[in-house]
Structure formats: C-alpha cells, structure tokens
Inverse folding.
C-alpha cells in the first residue's frame, strides 16, 4: 500500500466534510473544463480564430503546448503509476487511469496559460488582465474539483498544474528561437 502524504489525506478528508448537493453539482460541472471532451473542440475553435487573424505563432503555442501536455501527462502517469485515492467514496465514477499527475489539471493549466499569453500579447491591458484572472480562476476551479470529487490527491493536482506551466514555458521558448 502506498504511503499517503499527510497534507493529501487532510485535504481529501476536509473536502469530504464539505460535501453538499450544491457543491457536488458545481464541482461535477466545472471539472469538465479540464476534459479533452471540451478542450479539443475549444482548441480547434480557437485555432481557427487565430488563423483567421494570421496569428501563426499563437497557433503554434496553443497546438504544440496542448499536444505536448497530453503526451507528457500520460507518460508521467505510466512512470509513477500512483493509484487513485480511496479514502472516501468518490462523488463521480473513479477514472480507470493512474492518479499522478492530474490530467485535467495539466490540460486546463496548459490551455489557460496559453490563453493568458495570447491575451497579454494581443489585447489591451484591462482585457488581458480580465482574461488572465478568468484563466486562473478556471484552472484553480478544475484543480479543486478533482480533489473535491475524490478522484485525485492535492499533490496530483499541483503536479498537473506544474507540468502545464513547464510545457507552455518550453513551447513558448522554442517558438521564439
């Protein structure tokens, strides 16, 4: 049996004590923002929009980052093979893949960081900052949802977000070369 970090256990336990029907509905809904079922069409639409404005570097950033993040997160899952939490019953069905790192968190962090960079480079400052704040809120919302739903440890979520940041940073640097 795997040793669970105390912080992971305490956060999962605390989230379980907060359960109610309103939060269940909210977190069941927001968690979908990190799913490829929503992100693939969103990326496709955004790529088409960026293409129509001739924003090729932004297209490279988004497409390259999302592709790399999906590949990287699943490679890391296979390397670590961390089982899903089983401290409390899940609010949703437990996914069948490994827990570490959170793919939903990595994917939404990657998407939102790309959106934030694109906004900073193309929007006036007030709109860029509103976009960035919304992106941060969405990333945190998805991350918290994964713990609330009892399908990830908090360290899975943190690692997923960190992976997304690394991927986007590397892609951005490569595109600038």
């Amino acid at each position: 049996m795997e040793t669970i970090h105390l912080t992971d256990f305490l956060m999962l336990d605390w989230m379980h004590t907060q359960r109610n029907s309103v939060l269940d509905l909210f977190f069941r809904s927001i968690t979908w923002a990190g799913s490829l079922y929503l992100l693939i069409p969103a990326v496709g639409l955004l790529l088409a929009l960026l293409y129509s404005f001739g924003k090729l570097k932004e297209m490279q950033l988004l497409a390259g980052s999302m592709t790399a993040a999906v590949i990287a997160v699943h490679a890391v899952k296979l390397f670590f093979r961390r089982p899903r939490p089983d401290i409390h019953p899940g609010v949703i069905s437990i996914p069948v893949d490994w827990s570490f790192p959170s793919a939903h968190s990595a994917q939404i962090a990657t998407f939102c960081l790309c959106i934030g960079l694109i906004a900073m480079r193309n929007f006036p400052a007030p709109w860029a900052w509103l976009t960035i704040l919304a992106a941060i809120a969405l990333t945190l919302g998805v991350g918290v949802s994964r713990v609330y739903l009892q399908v990830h440890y908090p360290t899975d979520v943190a690692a997923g977000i960190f992976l997304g940041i690394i991927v986007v940073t590397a892609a951005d640097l490569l595109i600038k070369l």
Residues 110 and 164 are 5 Å apart (CA to CA). Helices lie at 6-17, 21-30, 36-52, 56-80, 103-122, 125-148, 154-176. The chain is about 75% helix and 0% strand. The radius of gyration is 17 Å.
